[in-house]
Write a structure and sequence with these properties.
The structure is a single chain. By secondary structure, this protein is of the alpha+beta class. Among the domains are: 145 residues, Serine Threonine Protein Phosphatase 5, Tetratricopeptide repeat; 135 residues; 111 residues. The chain is built from 31 helices and eight strands. The strands form three sheets. Strands 5-6-8-7 form a four-stranded mixed sheet. A two-stranded antiparallel ribbon has the order 1-2. A hairpin with a 5-residue loop joins β7 and β8. α6 runs parallel beside α8, α7 runs parallel beside α9 and α23 packs parallel to α25. It is elongated. It starts with a strand and ends with a helix. Keywords: Cytoplasm, Differentiation, Metal-binding, Spermatogenesis, Zinc, Zinc-finger. Its main location: cytoplasm. GO terms for molecular function: zinc ion binding. Pfam families: Asp_Glu_race_2. It is found in: Cytoplasm, Cytosol.
Amino acid sequence: MKSEIWASLPPANEVKHDFKGANISLGEVTNETSQNEKLGDFSEQISSDMDEKCKFSDKVTAKEEKENIHEVCKSKDSKNAEIMLGECQLATLGPKPLCLSVPPLNLSAHQEDTLLKPWINDFRFLGKHSLLKLQNPETCEIFKREKNVGVFQKPLGLILPHRYCKFHFNTLRGCERSQCKFAHVPEQGDEKVCMDVFKKYISINELCLLQRAVSMFMEYYRRFPPGIHFDLQVLNDLLNSLLKHCLLKEVFQVVNLSIMVKMLPALKILLEIFEHVTTMKLRNAVPALIDIFCKLVEAGMVLDPEHFNYIVKLLYQVQASKQEITAVLEMKSRLQMRQFKKNWTCDLESALNEIEHCKEKGDWIKLGNLYINVKMGCEKFADFQRFCACIAETLTKDYKEERLGVPFCEFAETVSKDPQNSEVDKTLLGRIGISAMYFYHKLLQWSKGRKVLDKLYELKIHFTSLKGLTGPEKLAPRCQIVNIAAEIFLKNGSLDGALWVLRESDWIINTPLWPCDRLDVLNRHNLLCTIAHEILAKSLYRQTFEVLQNLPGFQNSQETVEVSQYSLLFNKLLDACIESNSLGMSSSVAEFMISKSIPIDFSFLRRLITSLGRSCLWLKARAHYKSALSLGCYPPLEGNLYRKLLLIPSYLSEIEMLLAIEIFLVSNASSIQSPGTSTQMLQIVLKRCEENKSRSKDDYQAAVERLIMAARLSDPKLFIKHMTVNVNKEQVYSLEHCSALKWLKENMKWAGKVWLFNNH
């Protein structure tokens, strides 16, 4: 092994000198050892001012080592001597220490007088001085070794618990034991020891100590979370020192772990890292740096827009990719949203105060603009709903002065003009409108309530499926909201408005999805009855029938209402329809009443059947006649039909008589159409009714004429012949067989379906 050693001793004056190194041959390594000496292994490490490592090894006996160290420590001249060691190479042949035989060092006169040549790091010393000539080479070598031992093993001044390794913590060289029984990492609860060690290492600012601090930081905080002794300033100082020594890898390790334990470094440190990467043109470090940057922002680090702009500028200088710059800009947007969330509580309070200010000024347009601004900035819908509830309360406060305008209308008009107006805005406006509607209904201010409803209609807001934002209307059933809106229209004389509200709600009353109480059902009953009377008075039969069809009790089984109580209303409508010859509507009303078992006035039903027949609406006339038979409107026919005898009450109209004859013919069709039955006679008796006995003979004679007319109305015509008068002074007629046979031949196909399949 060969090594080059050069040394110089600075004088008091600061003058620069260059020295040439003297080459010293150490000889070859041999296996021979001295019998009187035992050599040990001693390895040292120093760091120059330029952060370069120097290594050298030597072997001396343990006894000489102790004596020489003692002598050198006592020597006053050692204080003024500083030996700078050059770069040396240590060849290691195996895990065991090498035994080196060091021959005496001989310096020639030329080597002593010649200045040492500068090495790579070009160490220079200030001041003029003379060279120290070493008379004994062995003494010189020992002096250098023992001086370095003092530097590396000198305590750093840390006060540590006994369980910690003092060589590892408290010396520059550290612990060299392969298996040390003392702790090299602070234990749980000794975070203060950690902080003290970090502070000491940072203050010394040696490369090896900073690396040891990083290792200690990583090992400790991977196992234990930060406690009360954690000092954020120490973390920042450590990162700053690492950056100055260009230890970027260690910086990334410490920052990543600090993010995991939620102890973020200062923003200044982050910017310095970006500056370092840019200055050193470390393009390969950019992806890892961007990743750390995003983690810091997500963890809560706050940057101003100018910080983001500065970082983007640095990234452009280091030629970062478009994706990396985009990632920084995305974090800028996310940070702005997060900052807004933090400020939203304050913003909401200021917005609520602004609502009160708008109320005092009566500036509802400004209130609408405030709604738009808050909507654009609010992220949580629950907060925005709370804001809208405050608006609803403001628009429905009791006013000391009577105002001509309606605040809700001005507010809603302003909001609706927003280009970004959405269905959500319509829903919220509808709910606010419901609160305003309840407010005016309570005060009986029908005109203002009407204006609120007109504005909702104008903005096409389907409020009937909504609820209010405040007060009792927030929990009101749908039936109640519709009732109040319809009542407001009705009080303003707007039947069309009331019908619009009811139709808009699909006439809903009580359903599993929209339940209501009995009082709401009763209010709906009274409301619809009032509307029906007013509409019927205007001869609006179709609208009246629509209202009556949606009375409580008709929609579902949950409405336990006795529908027979509606008989008077329906019969009144039926009578009006027949009177006005609205036969289609009359027929529909009668069918509905029969299907819903609503008692129907027989006189109205008979009039309807007669009117239908006279208008040649025979299908409907026959259908209603069958229904009338089933309801008992006419005397039963079953007892006489098959005896070839038909009893017709004299009070029937010609249409009713004809329909009775049709049933009579169909019932006896088999006997009429059988051969050899032409001699059998079909008789018709025009019955005098007891209630008609007091009537004049003219009434009965009119009945006779109606019977003859009924036979003529038939297609083909039927011929009847007067036979006799029975004991009750009732006219008896016979039905001509040929005409009956012809009628059956032409009409039996449809008549059988109409009259036989549902015998009465």
